[in-house]
Amino acid sequence: MMNDYKIKNILESLKEEVENGKVSLREAAVELHKAGWTNFIDIDATRNLLKTRNVTGNGNVPGVSDMMGKYREMKAAHPDALYIFRNGESCELYEDDAIAASGILGIATAERVDGQGKGVKELRFSFRDLDVYLPKLIRAGNRVAVCEPNQTGSGKRV
């Protein structure tokens, strides 16, 4: 597993190269995969990771992505539920939810860097596999919420 400092440096350089058009998102995803950030090449996750922005309000911490802030907000309100977030063609679970689901589903967690440079446990699988994994989580006695991104009238995803 890579250390946080190395991951942060790779992300900063890739973000700059993607913004300047020197590297495509696909090439950035391949680089992150080679560096050990993910078990597979995921363009949607790369796009979201490189676009992590500062958010405030609703209890979100500055430097935390919208989904991560939403996860923490919902987890504080209902700590007994597992939250699965749809992110493009992927499903993601974070922190304690990722660890709990990992044991049930037999999928290894990965560690990614949040907007504050901290490592966050993440479990990710294809959205196509949701119908296989969701029943396993429920049969194991978990309350599960599947969270889809919404767009406001201004086009902002929440």
UniProtKB/TrEMBL annotation:
Pfam family, one: MutS_I
Domain DNA mismatch repair protein MutS-like N-terminal: 67-152
InterPro entries: DNA_mismatch_repair_MutS-lik_N (IPR007695), DNA_mismatch_repair_MutS_N (IPR016151)
Recorded GO MF terms: ATP binding; mismatched DNA binding
BP terms from Gene Ontology: mismatch repair
UniProt-recorded name of the protein: DNA mismatch repair protein MutS-like N-terminal domain-containing protein
Organism encoding this protein: Alistipes finegoldii
